[in-house]
Design brief:
Blueprint: E1 2-11, E2 18-24, E3 30-35, H1 37-47, H2 57-67, E4 70-81, E5 84-93, E6 96-102, H3 104-114, E7 118-120, H4 122-128, H5 132-135, H6 140-147, H7 154-169, H8 172-179
Parallel strand pairs: 4-7
Antiparallel strand pairs: 1-2, 1-7, 2-3, 4-5, 5-6
Helix pairs in contact: 1-3, 2-3
Length: 197
């Protein structure tokens, strides 16, 4: 198992669904999990320590465990099958450790309230996690793709040559003099443009 923390809760711009992003401790690996809007709200409220007037469902579950003298030890994301994540609550009661099946979103909402570790099965992290360095292209790759010269047709080449002629005849010294307010100075067509350094 790999220990993770909740990095953020985000909203997808394409379909407005919520995603909780788990980050591996001491590593730059991220595990995004799609969750429902109510679970996203429950996690966000607990992360931001917002006080609510009445207990929410995950507060209720925490209170029930406490009333029964049971202790939540940790929550786990144990499997990924057919694009569905499976969660687990590890609860201690009367010296016995119980594994209780749970959706990861509910387990996470409870973990934030109980301040317990969140663990993810290594196979799940290997299969579904994102590593920014590996997933983003290196800077050299896009440059190679972009720097390949495109074959221009004659018409496009002709249009570009007009700009090249303009730039070659442009005299920067004349521009500086005209900024000084001297009017009537005309460009000397016989004068050679300054050479590039």
């Amino acid at each position: 198992m790999v220990e993770v923390v909740i990095d953020s809760v985000r909203v997808s711009l394409t379909n407005q669904q919520r995603i909780v992003v788990l980050r591996e401790i001491n590593a730059e690996r991220y595990l995004p999990i799609w969750i429902g809007p109510y679970e996203a709200e429950a996690i966000t409220i607990a992360l931001q320590e917002i006080e609510v007037a009445r207990p929410q469902t995950h507060d209720l579950l925490k209170n029930v465990l406490s009333s029964l003298n049971a202790r939540l030890l940790r929550v786990e994301v144990v499997a990924l099958r057919d694009d569905v994540f499976y969660g687990n609550l590890v609860v201690e009661h009367n010296g016995e450790v119980l594994n209780i099946d749970s959706r990861p979103s509910d387990a996470l909402a409870l973990a934030v309230r109980a301040h317990v570790p969140i663990l993810v099965a290594r196979e799940v992290m290997d299969a579904a996690s994102i590593t920014p360095e590996k997933d983003l292209q290196t800077p050299e790759e896009p440059r190679e793709a972009v720097s390949k010269p495109e074959v221009l047709d004659e018409e496009a080449d002709e249009r570009l040559s007009v700009f090249e002629d303009f730039l070659q005849k442009l005299n920067i010294g004349d521009l500086d003099e005209s900024e000084g307010g001297e009017e009537g100075d005309e460009e000397n067509p016989d004068e050679e443009p300054p050479k590039k350094r």
